[in-house]
Amino acid sequence: MAVSTSPQKPKYLDTSLSIQERTLDLIAHLSLDEKVGLMNHESKGVPRLNIPSYNYWNEALHGIARSGKATVFPQAIGMAATWDKALIRQVASAIGDEGRAKYHAALRRNGFTAQYQGLNMWSPNVNIFRDPRWGRGQETWGEDPFLTGEMAAEFVRGLQGDDPKYLKTAACAKHYAVHSGPEKDRHTFNAVVTKRELFDTYLPAFKKLVTEANVEAVMGAYNRTLDELCCASKLLLEDILRDQWAFKGHVVSDCQALSDFHLTHKVTKDAAESAALALKHGCDLGCDHVFNEIPEAIARGLITEADVDRALEHSLATRFKLGMFDPPEEVPYASIGTEVVGCEEHRKLAYQTATETVVLLKNKNNIMPIKPSTKKIFVTGPTATSMEVLLGNYYGFNNQMITLLEGITGRVPEGMGMEYTSGAMLKHPREIQETWAPGMAQASDLAIVCAGFSSFLEGEEGESLLSPQNGDRSSISLPASQANYIKELAIHGVKIVLVLTGGSPIALGEIEDMVDAVIFIWYPGMEGGRAVADVLFGDVSPSGKLPLTFPKSLDQLPAFDDYSMTKRTYRYMSEEPLYPFGFGLSYSRFEYVDLKLDRLSIKAGESLPVSVTVGNRGDRAASEVVQFYVSDLEASTLVPLHHLIGFERVTLEAGESRTIHFTLTPEMMSFYNNDGKSTLEPGKFKLEIGGCSPGKRGQELGAPKPVTTEFEVK
After folding, report:
1. Neighbour count for residue 562 (Cβ, 10 Å)
2. Residue 499 near residue 521 (C-beta atoms within 8 A)
3. HSE toward the beta carbon, residue 108, CA cutoff 13 A
4. What 3-state DSSP class applies to 450?
5. Residues of the chain with CATH 3.20.20.300
6. How many Å is the Cα radius of gyration of the chain?
7. Run of H or E residues at 690
8. What whole-number distance in Å separates Cα of residue 390 and Cα of residue 102?
9. What is the location of CATH 2.60.40.10 in the chain?
């Protein structure tokens, strides 16, 4: 009698085995053509092995993007202004939940996932926002390497989840490396920096995400850095990423970046050479179709199938970690349902985040918040009714977006008068000379002017319809149409609260003196209107801090295409700015006292415990961001004037004080030398703790007086 036997389950389906064992076994089952089909972002299915097609390309900078309904959180630069690591982790976790729900819904509906439906989130963008002209700076976490790393690391942890075996989604650190405009040159330029600048400014955030946050993927940039293509750089991908940082995930190219090798950079002759160069130097997955030429590259002897297997091992491992080949009941995130998408809990989180992004830059005579005795307000400006200013770029959609006008209208108490007219357009001048707006403003106690930029004026190449610079800006001033309108109102003696939208610094010039208050709200997301209204009326005290320096004008900056950090950012800019990094006012008042160091002299390699007391001396509860800066006073080479080494966001009741404890580590006292090596030299150091970066300008604007001390490293 014959005994029937079931075919043995292949190792790659055995969930008890390690990811590496399963990945290698799956690769062993594949033909060369099947392997190649899996190495583009549009990954082909393998029907005989029941592997569905899969698209790696998804976006989640501030919510699931380009995939229908989603919770729309503030743009990344706005989230950076919260300086709230715990909040950012919550936000990213919510985004990850919505991504999971959408992925499984697509699988159930179609049996596969198309673009913007997968679990590979090409976020966060941790490029350093070195120049305010860069349109994509809004996608970043600001100009400071430390702040960027700290905030983006929490974003990665939230996206990827905390399960020891499975990833909720796979985060991706981009664009590696030394990439921040100009947009029109991104497919051709060579970023030239010193080794010191590379390791001091451009790489720390990437390093933190790789070595501490365990980011699953890294995306190579379009450009060259130090003459090497970023998606085929021995220095960046092999020496630093794999060897020094021990990165175990996969590297993906930016979209069409591999084609740029032969089409624009002209480093290679054709697609086969481009595929071989990228593969040999560490790019595992292509976001175009250049890797389709891998068989041709093998036939020419440029690479071997072993090179293919090595790359495929990295990208397939990610899919195993995401549970794509495992029974749903074993994957903890597979049960997340579509009810989470745009749910009330996430909406509340979007609102909280939007309130924390608001930065109060000026508040003459404490005109803000709007007083209960106010009889009438006038709302005006080109961004008051704009949906675009809520979104920024790489955005999702929602059917419950709240514009600034809608938010203010919903908050105005009955009995208080209110009028609205746009008064001005975003960029173009009016066709008529006179309008009713000045009269409407004069008849009101307060004019709330909603102005600034939108994605029409700044963003990525191909998207910003009113930007002649491919999404970048040649000027950082308000468009003339808006500036002239504000002047028109100011001439009539109207009290003006300027509510600015944008993803980058705005130089106000003479406008700054004409207005009574300035509130910067970035691109605040779906709840932006309600959040801003609650700040205006005092239900919430503003607590945002600038993650960027706002220069007075472009005269304070080097050329846009100059990647040297000389005169850039608060770390290397000696001139006083319009608004300094880390600055932001409150409706309360804070005081810093009792700075204590464990000792004033330490040996090289020792840590130094520090404590400081911060108190709320106002009459209401409010939040403050305690910022720690250190300066090397006797360094033998060029070092930052001062640099952020720590921060802590605290909420204090009126009259409450709290002592903050902090430890200065040897790493915080070190600098990068001209060879790119971390160095700690003996000498004197200055420690400054307060609510703003060091400098006179912050205190002139109303920042609390910092506490400072010096110590010595022997």
Report:
1. 15
2. yes
3. 11
4. strand
5. 19-50+173-321
6. 26
7. strand 683-690
8. 23
9. 590-713
Instruction: Tell me what pLDDT residue 490 has.
Output: 96
Closest CA to 582 of 197, 151, 143: 143
Q: Strand order of the sheet with strand 224-225?
A: 190-191, 224-225, 228-229
Q: How far apart are CA 323 and CA 265, in angstroms?
A: 38
Residue corresponding to tokens 């404490």:
366
Instruction: Please tell me the number of Cα atoms within 13 Å of 538 on its side-chain side.
Output: 15
Contact 27, 35 (CB under 8 A): yes
- CATH code for the part of the protein at 19-50+173-321: 3.20.20.300
Q: Active-site residue among 458, 460, 534, 688?
A: 458
Q: What's the pTM value of the predicted model, to 2 decimals? A: 0.97
Tokens for 11, please give them.
């190792």
β strands within 221-354, DSSP E: 224-225, 228-229, 250-253
What are the φ and ψ backbone dihedral angles of 452, each rounded to 5 degrees?
120, -150
Q: From CA 670, how far away is CA 639, in angstroms rounded?
A: 10
Q: Is 458 a catalytic residue?
A: yes
Whole-Å CA distances, 380 to 383, 476, 493, 626: 8, 22, 16, 35
Q: Encode 139-158 in three state secondary structure.
A: HCCCCCHHHHHHHHHHHHHH
CATH of domain 590-713: 2.60.40.10
The reply to whether omega before 124 is within 30° of 0 (cis) is yes
- What residues in the chain have per-residue pLDDT under 50? 1-6
Where does 521-625 have alpha helices with state H?
Answer: 528-536, 569-572
Q: Do 541 and 531 contact (CB within 8 A), yes or no?
A: no
- Beta strand pairing call for 217-220 and 250-253: parallel
Task: Encode pLDDT of 612-669 as tens digits.
Answer: 999 999 999 999 999 999 999 999 999 999 999 999 999 999 999 999 999 999 999 9
- Strand order of the β-sheet with 417-421 is 359-363, 517-522, 496-501, 446-452, 376-380, 417-421
Q: Per CATH, the architecture of 350-572 is what?
A: 3-Layer(aba) Sandwich (3.40)
Annotated catalytic residue, options 150, 254, 632, 688: 254
Token duo for residue 365:
């005579």
Residue 69 DSSP class: B
What is the C-alpha separation between 357 and 88, in angstroms, rounded?
11
Give the per-residue pLDDT at 399: 95
Active site residue 254: yes
The helix (run of H) or strand (run of E) holding residue 310 is helix 305-321
Give the DSSP H or E segment for 205.
helix 204-211
pLDDT (tens digit per residue) in 88-130: 999 999 999 999 999 999 999 998 899 999 999 999 999 999 9
Going by DSSP bridges, is the β-strand pair 643-652/622-632 parallel, antiparallel, or unpaired? Answer: antiparallel
Residue 1 pLDDT: 36
